[in-house]
């Protein structure tokens, strides 16, 4: 996409963390952005904050949507189209993590992780595929290095992110014949509130949310003939163990 100004992006889980950072980066490039959250107040508050930070009132809206349910994602896509008239980019970012030994992991925690992280990615593209084919758009999932590297206590999270990585690559092969580009971004440690973390100056070594925003912009600017389909990104100098 040579000229991003006026393009429209839908970001799931866009009220904080990576989703918020990507939304801010896109708004600063002149895009119009829809962010979603299961919490309507959080979505509206984040949209107001983004509009204020980027001086883009009228270019960002927040809506309530739950990625675990296809109808909810279909409603979100319809609202994006009704509001801005087109949809060029969908970023499946919504996610959560439950960690612990398989002995302690509950069925509810397993279902929440898979339904949000993996089924949510399916629902996001299923709901938007017609719009992205019409615009020859871009679908990006936020996976994780945990989608290629397993660890103790990560059975649910690893399963969901391994799934997202493989799912996205298969979707890429399905949709590139229509001019739709598909990529997955696999970050390592990012400075967010994920899993109870509190960002601080001591964590300046971590990837920052604006770094992922910059990476998304780079992908969107890539020459249409070239597709970085799977991107691993990690801190340059993590603390020594």
Features:
241 residues; alpha/beta; Rossmann fold; seven-stranded parallel beta sheet; 6 helices; 44% helix; 15% strand; globular; SDR; Sc_DH/Rdtase_CS; SDR family oxidoreductase; SDR_fam
General description of the model:
- There is one protein chain.
- The chain is of the alpha/beta class and 241 residues long.
- The protein has a single domain, classed as 3-Layer(aba) Sandwich (Rossmann fold), CATH 3.40.50.
- Helices cover 44% and strands 15% of the residues.
- It has a seven-stranded parallel beta sheet with strand order 3-2-1-4-5-6-7, with helices on both faces.
- Helix 1 (17-28) runs parallel beside helix 2 (40-54).
- The mean pLDDT is 96.
- This is SDR family oxidoreductase.
- Residues 7-194 form the Ketoreductase domain.
């Amino acid at each position: 996409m040579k000229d991003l100004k006026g393009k429209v992006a839908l970001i799931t889980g866009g009220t904080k963390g990576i989703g918020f950072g990507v939304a801010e980066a896109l708004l600063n490039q002149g895009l119009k952005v829809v962010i979603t959250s299961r919490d309507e107040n959080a979505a509206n508050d984040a949209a107001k904050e983004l509009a204020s930070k980027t001086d883009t009132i009228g270019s960002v809206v927040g809506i309530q949507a739950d990625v675990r349910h296809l109808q909810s994602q279909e409603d979100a896509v319809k609202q994006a189209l009704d509001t801005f008239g087109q949809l060029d980019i969908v970023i499946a970012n919504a996610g959560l993590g439950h960690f612990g030994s398989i002995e302690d992991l509950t069925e509810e925690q397993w279902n929440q992780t898979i339904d949000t992280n993996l089924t949510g990615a399916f629902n996001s593209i299923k709901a938007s595929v017609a719009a992205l084919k019409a615009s020859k758009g871009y679908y990006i999932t936020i996976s994780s290095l945990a989608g290629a590297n397993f660890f103790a206590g990560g059975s649910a999270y690893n399963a969901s992110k391994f799934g997202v990585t493989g799912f996205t690559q298969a979707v890429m092969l399905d949709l590139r014949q229509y001019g739709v580009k598909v990529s997955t971004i696999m970050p390592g440690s990012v400075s967010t509130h994920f899993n109870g973390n509190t960002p601080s100056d001591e964590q300046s070594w971590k990837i920052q949310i604006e770094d992922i925003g910059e990476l998304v912009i780079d992908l969107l600017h890539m020459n249409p003939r070239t597709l970085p389909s799977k991107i691993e990104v990690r801190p340059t100098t993590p603390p020594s163990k």
